[in-house]
Amino acid sequence: MYKEFKFGGKQNPFGNVGVIIGFILILVLFYFLLKGLYTLLSWISPFLLIGALILDYRVVLDFGKYVLRLLKENTAIGILIVVLCILGFPFLTGLLFFRAFTGRFIKNYLKKAEEAAKPKFSDYEEVENNDSTKEEYLVLPKADRKVENKKDSEYDELFK
Questions:
Q1: Does residue 126 sit within a domain?
Q2: In whole angstroms, what is the distance from residue 5 CA to residue 7 CA?
């Protein structure tokens, strides 16, 4: 009642060779993709760094502060990060540009959302009545007010 399934089987000594070859091909493909991406980014990395500085210079400054803080607090990790930054400079500039671009995009999006939430008032236009349609519709009768004479207090003295 119990069945066991194995890939490759016991009869064939080369049963796992196909899986190993497939895994090696995937690793080779991954290597060439990373190599091509590294080459492409190494050509455009100066432009990406300048673009990151233009979009949001604080991203680059914050990364520099982070590396300096790592060098002070944990020297071994800080040196490792500096070496990785030198070796992976094209990827680092791509990451910094991506962070600056997305940060600016989010700020613009939030600013537009804030402006859309504000009430908008339209410009007004004064309309003048023609003589033929002129009506006195805002003439109000004078109100009769009774003024009571209260005795003068110090408060009333302030307004005299």
A1: no
A2: 7
